[in-house]
Design a protein that fits this description.
The chain has about 100 residues and is mainly α. It is built from 5 helices and 2 strands, in the order αβααβαα. The chain has one domain.
Length: about 100
């Protein structure tokens, strides 16, 4: 039981340390994002996630680009949608792309 707790704490520390790196290996990117290896392979093969292959085989990821990719397609809160609807009713104009 105690070994399991220690392992979990070590994994947590490893994840925190990953956040300090600027470039990830394939495995590190999977850990950082929480994406499974299988799905990450699919994302890289279909060029749906930004990545680099400086020598043509080994895959690397830029932390800044991964962070940006992870933050795409925000989901508006119910409150933001209600506010947008109220603004539309008052002004008659729809704001595109905003997530107020």
């Amino acid at each position: 039981m105690e070994n399991n707790l220690i392992e979990k704490r070590l994994e947590h520390i490893e994840k925190l340390l990953l956040g300090q790196k600027d470039v990830f290996t394939f495995e590190e990117c999977c850990l950082y994002t929480g994406i499974s290896r299988t799905y990450m392979y699919k994302l890289t093969c279909t060029n749906r996630i930004p990545h680099f292959k400086p020598h043509g085989k080994i895959i690397y990821f830029s932390k800044a680009e991964i962070d940006s990719w992870l933050m795409k397609n925000p989901v508006k809160t119910a409150e933001a949608i209600q506010q947008e609807a109220a603004n539309y009713l008052v002004t008659g104009q729809h704001k595109r792309g905003s997530i107020s």
